[in-house]
Amino acid sequence: MARRPLVVGNWKMNGTRASSQKLLAEIIAGLPADCKTDVGVCPPSVFIPEVATAASGKAVRVGSQNIADQDEGAYTGEISGPMLKEFNVSLAIVGHSERRAIYGETDALVAARYAKAIAHGLTPILCVGETLEERESNRTFEVIDTQLKAVLDLCGVESLKKAVIAYEPVWAIGTGRTASTEQAQEVHAYIRQKIAALDATVAAGLQILYGGSVKADNAQALFSQPDVDGGLIGGASLDAKSFLAICTAA
Ligand code: PEP
Fold first, then answer.
1. Mean pLDDT within 195-222
2. In sequence order, what E strands does the chain have?
3. Residue 176 confidence class, pLDDT cut points 50, 70, 90
4. From residue 86, how far is each of 47, 53, 120, 197 by CA, in Å?
C-alpha cells in the first residue's frame, strides 16, 4: 500500500506573531503546486488562530503541540480538542519527549491525550523514542513497546487508522546527532511489524515519521528508507528554505 509522505514542523516555543505569519507565508509560497507530500506546521498555541486563518484553503495543515486529556473545566494551562476544533486545526502532537521529560507526562497521560485527539477528529502524532541510556543498554524496543502499549490498551489498534506515529530518538532531538538511516529504518520496521501482528491492514497504511535533527542534507537518505514516511521537524522547520527542502526530499 502506497503511503503518502508527511512532513510536519514543530515550531515549539519559538517566534513571534509576525515571524509566524512570515514563516507560514514563505512555506505556502514555496510549496510546489503538485507537491506530493502532505505538509503541516505546529505553531505555539497563541499563534494558532492567526496561522490557521492564513493556512485556510492552502496546502498546509495546522497542528497543535499538545491536546488536553479533558474537554473542559479546571485544567489550568491546557487546551482542549473542542477548542482546537474551533480553528482550522487537524493535527495534534502527543507525547513529545520534551513533554515527557520536562513536564513529567506519563505513558498513561499521553494515551489519554491521544484518545481525546481521536475522539475529536484530530490526527494525533504520537511521539515515541528512547533516551541514549536506554539505547546503550539495549532497551530501545522495550521502551517503544511500553509507550505503544499504553495507547493500544486504551484506544485499540483500529485507532491508528486515524493517527500518525513519530519515532523520535531522544538523543537525536535538537542535538545535531541524527539516527543513521539503518537505525531509523530498524525501529520503524519494528514498529510496523508490531502493529502488523495486531492488524496488517492498519500497519500497511500507517504513516511513521522520523524526528531528530532532520536537516535538508540528511532528509532524503532518511525518507528513502522503506518504513520512513516523512518527518517531524524541529529546528529546521523554523527556516522556510530548510523546511521546504525537507518537504521536497519527502
Ligand atoms: C522535535 O522536536 O520533534 C525534533 C525532531 O526536533 P529537531 O528536529 O530540532 O531535532
1. 97
2. 6-10, 38-42, 60-64, 89-94, 123-128, 164-167, 207-210, 230-233
3. confident
4. 14, 11, 11, 37
Helix (H) or strand (E) holding 142: helix 140-155
- The Å distance, Cα 195 to ligand 1 centre, comes to 24
**Shortest-distance Cα residue to atom 1 of ligand 1:** 234
How many CA atoms are closer than 13 Å to the CA of 250, on its beta-carbon side? 32
Residue 48 has pLDDT above 80, yes or no: yes
**Distance from Cα 177 to the centre of ligand 1, integer Å:** 11
Cell output for 40: 503541516
The cell for 232 is 517531524
Q: What lines the ligand 1 site, CB under 6 Å?
A: 10, 168, 173-174, 211-214, 232-236
Its pTM stands at 0.97
- Point out the ligand 1 atom lying closest to the alpha carbon of residue 168: 5
CA of 77 to the centre of ligand 1 (A): 23
Q: Is the pLDDT of residue 1 over 80?
A: no
Percent of the chain at pLDDT above 90?
A: 95
